[in-house]
Amino acid sequence: MSGAGAHGGSPASPAGPExxxxxxxxxxxxxxxxxxxxxxxxxxxxxxxxxxxxSQPAASSRVRAMERQxxxxxxxRSPRGSRLTGAGALVTDWARRIVESAEVxxxxxxxxxxxxxxxxxxxASMTIGEYLLPGWLIALRARHPDTVVxxxxxxxxxxxxxxxxxxADLGFVEGLTVPQGLDGAVIGHxxxxxxxxxxxxxxxxxxxxxxxxxxxxxxxxxEEGSGTRExxxxxxxxxxxxxxxxxxxxxxxxxxxxxxxxAVLSELAVGEELAARRLVAVPVEGVALRxxxxxxxxxxxxxxxxxxRDLLGLSxxxx
Length: 319
Fold this sequence. Notes:
This is LysR family transcriptional regulator. This protein is an alpha/beta fold. It is built from 13 helices and eleven strands. The relative contact order is 0.14.
């Protein structure tokens, strides 16, 4: 991956042998991908530059070099900040997987180098994995510096399957109930918000929409199996919900900001966008969109011990 920095001038030709060097010319380096993820999360190139420890001109130059290398526009820049293009949202999702894989690679190499034999396998839903779990893992590392943690992220159905198949020791999900075949404990609660761009008619109405109007409006949502979909279906009952599916929270936010329609998202996921007025939260009459956040583990398993027990304790939200 590190070789990509030397080939940032233009997209590589599709012709030629498919070898490691050819791939390196098409894949940006990790630093550039981390910068793109920061811009997507913070909505500002300047804030992303500060977080990544580089100057804003250097960050801007790096993003433009990445756009030339890939041959597509990633960001739309304006005085109010930077937002992802449609293609940029997809690239960001793919970039996140690359960065997460690199982190797993790094943790594995450290484990081999240090001859560590303690391992904790965690599966988490996307919202918890992106917005809460990193802080818990940092605190866990202070208590168990020799524990190597592997993380798999997906929707709540994915987490349940990882636990049932024995591929994870502890999971975190959002939803109305404990998934079948698992035991669990509520660690906190999360509020779901209906969000729209500032120019949307709902953002200017005196009387908010009700459940029937919400159900009749095409919504942008995560895929089936996500905790958000489960809670929304429970809140609206028999009312049908037309929707457009997107594969990630980042893609949903980019679509809403771009004017594709309202969405229902976790309050944890839209804090930056609400503060910057890129999104507006709209109340809905008669609809309670609140869900439990749960730690889950295989049914009948002995009480968690060691690092699993400590991570469970660190995850209990104090609010």
